[in-house]
Amino acid sequence: MSRVVTTYHQRVAQEKRALIVTAATALFLELGYDRTSLARIAERSGVSRATLFKQFPSKAALFDAIVTESWSTADEEDPPPAGNVVDGLSIIGRRYAELLGRAQMTDLFRIVIAELPRFPELAHAQFSHGKMPYFESVRSYLLAEHEAGTVRVEDVDLAATQFLGMISNYVFWPTLLVPGWEVSAERVAQVVDEAVRTIAARYAATGPVASTND
């Protein structure tokens, strides 16, 4: 019985957390980060102030949660397959395109851009808690493939930037900047496929691979 009760309370807590994050994101967009109070967020989300403060003691902690959840993927615990860079990058690319296609990702960037002059710490949070960890996961994959001899990538930072940039420059940035911009699922799949092919061709292994630590 205790396990059932614990599971129930965990589910309720997760549901309330989701309501709080959704309400906070909407208010940050409507009113700005500075004019949005935790009390107003509690009212909009329909939870008590005590519940909100228990989960998020400050607006900074709440914004960090928005960043973390915006950059999370449902299957992020499943690593891309090793030994075949085309298959691996195809999975990474599809995940990235799906991530960038979420409404909350666009909202997150709009909040950061709007508040950057007065609250540069929001941009730092977005970079350190969201973009950089995701970038590091792609970098680590390419480094592992380099060390295994599947590809020859002397500059994994550059290669990861190139790959992610080819996708985001087509499927995300125009959506953020141009009202009504839409990219079909078929076009997104084509963009990912071309990015994979480009990276695979550019960094194809052509001989013995030296360690990047040498």
From TrEMBL:
Q: Which UniProt keywords apply?
A: DNA-binding
Keyword Cell division applies: no
Write down the DNA-binding region ranges. Answer: 37-56
Q: What Gene3D superfamilies does UniProt report for this protein, alphabetically?
A: Homeodomain-like, Tetracycline Repressor, domain 2
Give the superkingdom in one word: Bacteria
Stretches assigned to the HTH tetR-type domain: 14-74
Q: Name one Pfam family in it.
A: TetR_N
What is the protein's given name?
TetR/AcrR family transcriptional regulator
